[in-house]
Structures are given as structure tokens and as C-alpha cells.
Amino acid sequence: MSAISQKSQESKTVGEYVEKLIQENPIMIFSKSYCPYCKKAKGIFETLNVKYKAIELDNNPDQFDGKDIQNYLKIKTKQGTVPNIFINSEHIGGSDDLSDANENGTLKEKLANPKKNSESQSTDI
């Protein structure tokens, strides 16, 4: 099967692709590999031994360009920076928002009822 026909069977728009990732992964992080704030956010989940799914937007995700994904997220969340974090399909925000939630206890509340477990702790698409 060619790459073009494979893509047609996957998400047709960047919005569908992003929404599918958010819906299918209890913890979804849109990240960039070189970003210290992204590393900090992932570190919080790793310290808590919580599995997450991460997409590194600078490493050319398989189906859509990282810039297109980030532009969609900016429209959806009003946040143009990474990391852009979702827990149980709820937009949490960025690294500082996650850190604040961790410190004030609301992160543990959000993590108490995950939709499902991810297959791996950190997966780049």
C-alpha cells in the first residue's frame, strides 16, 4: 500500500489527527525534543511513574507536519507554546500549569481516574 493511500485511511485533517491522539491517550503531550519546559513536564510524569504519550513536533510526525499540529493546537487551546498537555482529554496547559497542578494536588486528582493506560511511557510518532 502506498504512503498516499495509507494516509487516506488515517485521519483526513490535522484536526482529526490531533483530536484522535487526545481521545486515545489518557495523557497526551505535544512537545519538542529540545525544549527544556517539555523535558520538565515529562519529568514530572516520570517522577510520578505515570505513563504518557508524547509527540515531538520537531521530529516530523508521521502523518502531519509539526508546525501544522502546533497551529491547530493554538486555535484549539489559545496556547501557541509547547508543551501542550492534555489529561483525560482535558487541556491542562503547559509546563508551569502542570507543575502548579502537581504542587497543589489537583494533578493527582486528575490522574486518579485515567481513561486507559498507554502502551509505553514515552512514544514519539
Automatic annotation (TrEMBL):
The keyword Lyase belongs to this UniProt entry's keyword annotation: no
Source taxon at top rank: Eukaryota
Protein family (similarity comment): Belongs to the glutaredoxin family. CPYC subfamily.
One Gene Ontology term from the biological process aspect of the record: cellular response to oxidative stress
UniProt cross-references to Gene3D superfamilies, sorted A to Z: Glutaredoxin
Compositional bias annotation for Basic and acidic residues: 106-118
Domain Glutaredoxin span(s) in chain numbering: 27-92
UniProt key word Transit peptide: no
Name this protein carries in UniProt: Glutaredoxin-1
Regions that span the bilayer: none
InterPro entries per record: GLR_AS (IPR011767), Glutaredoxin (IPR002109), Glutaredoxin_euk/vir (IPR011899), Glutaredoxin_subgr (IPR014025), Thioredoxin-like_sf (IPR036249)
Swiss-Prot/TrEMBL keywords: Disulfide bond, Electron transport, Redox-active center, Transport
CDD domains reported for this sequence: GRX_GRXh_1_2_like
Pfam families: Glutaredoxin (PF00462)
Annotated stretches, region: Disordered: 92-125
GO terms under cellular component: cytoplasm
Any one GO molecular-function label of the UniProt entry: glutathione disulfide oxidoreductase activity
